[in-house]
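Design a sequence for this backbone.
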């Protein structure tokens, strides 16, 4: 007990701050990679580390030498393997609230128009991909597309995705409550676990949301079903009420939360 009290007496407030910061960083990393492929990759690295220690203890010198050379470059390996997750974490530093400058009434109107457009297109079997920017900017994905900068309305969204529209194949991007651009091409997900039943629009929605914190609404041209994608995860077969409820939870009152 005397040794324990000696250790406690020698603890500085800077040591507590240091431990707290490291714990917070580890906690944020866990939240960031939770439910992603990064978890499987971390488990793979843990297995390699276990084999490395076992090879050293059991005298498997060749295997130990190979793993030793591999782990000596572990920082570079981690950067390469987790480049998308690292990029997403760094992009969270710069924040850009979706409803910046909009009143509570205007926030509700934008969500209502998005829901109305999605339901209309689903009933008419019109394929659509609507991307809604949240905190992370989407400027890198707007190099290809047609600039619009208009108020969000269900009629405008529906007309953009009509089969004979020249920009119906791409995605519509909504920033700060306004329809900014249409006909945008997004990166497709490389996740091998994605269902083969999902088409290009769904893969593009998953691919983008794996990189940034945007929300994507997808209307299937084949089935007329509405899906929403966040963080690379897709929720399918939404009706108007469930879609509105999810959008409200994800988008509404971000300014109020930021001010708190």
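Sequence:
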């Amino acid at each position: 007990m005397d040794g324990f009290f000696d250790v406690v007496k020698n603890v500085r407030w800077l040591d507590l701050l240091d431990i707290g910061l490291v714990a917070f960083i580890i906690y944020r990393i866990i939240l960031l990679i939770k439910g992603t492929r990064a978890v499987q990759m971390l488990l793979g690295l843990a297995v390699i580390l276990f084999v490395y220690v076992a090879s050293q203890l059991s005298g498997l010198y060749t295997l130990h030498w190979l793993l030793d050379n591999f782990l000596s470059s572990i920082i570079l390996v981690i950067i390469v393997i987790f480049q998308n997750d690292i990029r997403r974490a760094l992009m969270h530093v710069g924040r850009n609230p979706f409803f910046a400058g909009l009143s509570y009434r205007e926030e509700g109107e934008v969500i209502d128009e998005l829901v109305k457009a999605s339901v209309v297109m689903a009933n008419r079997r019109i394929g659509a991909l609507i991307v809604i920017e949240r905190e992370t900017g989407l400027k890198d994905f707007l190099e290809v597309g047609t600039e619009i900068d208009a108020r969000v309305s269900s009629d405008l969204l529906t007309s953009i995705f009509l089969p004979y529209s020249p920009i119906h194949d791409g995605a519509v991007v909504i920033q700060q409550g306004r329809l900014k651009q249409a006909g945008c091409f997004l990166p497709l997900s490389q996740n091998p676990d994605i269902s083969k039943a999902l088409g290009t629009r769904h893969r593009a929605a998953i691919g983008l949301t794996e990189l940034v914190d945007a929300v994507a609404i997808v209307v299937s041209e084949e089935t007329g079903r509405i899906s929403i994608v966040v963080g690379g995860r897709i929720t399918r077969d939404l009706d108007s009420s469930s879609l509105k409820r999810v959008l409200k939870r994800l988008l509404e009152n971000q300014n109020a939360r930021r001010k708190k």
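The CA atoms of residues 172 and 182 lie 4 Å apart.
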